[in-house]
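Entry type: protein chain
Record version: 2
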Amino acid sequence: MGKLMGWLAAPLAVRALVKARNILTDATPLNADCGRLCGAACCQPDETGENGMLLWPYEERLYRRPIDGFPFRLAEDERWYKGGKRLVCQGHCPRAHRPLACRVFPLRMRLTTGGAEGEDRVTAEIDPRAWATCPLPEAGGLRAVSGAFIKAVEAAGQALCRNVYLLEALLEDQRRMDELRRL
């Protein structure tokens, strides 16, 4: 996308991202701190120290300035989209500043088309990447996850789909995850 289009699209995309993040502010996979089950495995650095969470398009704009009590840095990462960023932190952060990817983990959003009423909707599913770090997929998959959390992830996905750039990113993520499943 050209610089002018990106500049024009950014405010609406950021607004949709903030709405999706706000939907997930208090929603968690379990009714208790799920990080206590696994030692917060999803937040721990890998052996290179270069782990982190991929940011949604324009989400890096929420991390332009330092945040008190949340040391982080942005790294270039174009696995998902051109110009993409990854937020690398030290494994603990204030909930209010967590990236969207952290807020939905161990789930991901899937756009399904032509449902019972012929409309598109977002459904939550286990993220295939979660199997490597999270005990919840093995403990029962979606049945092990709070129903309120599943609904919040789906509502956040619906908010993202109202922005064409975020919808495009969701569909690209879906394509990548479908490829990963086939391997």
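Comment: The helical segments are 3-23, 35-38, 100-104, 147-161, 164-182.
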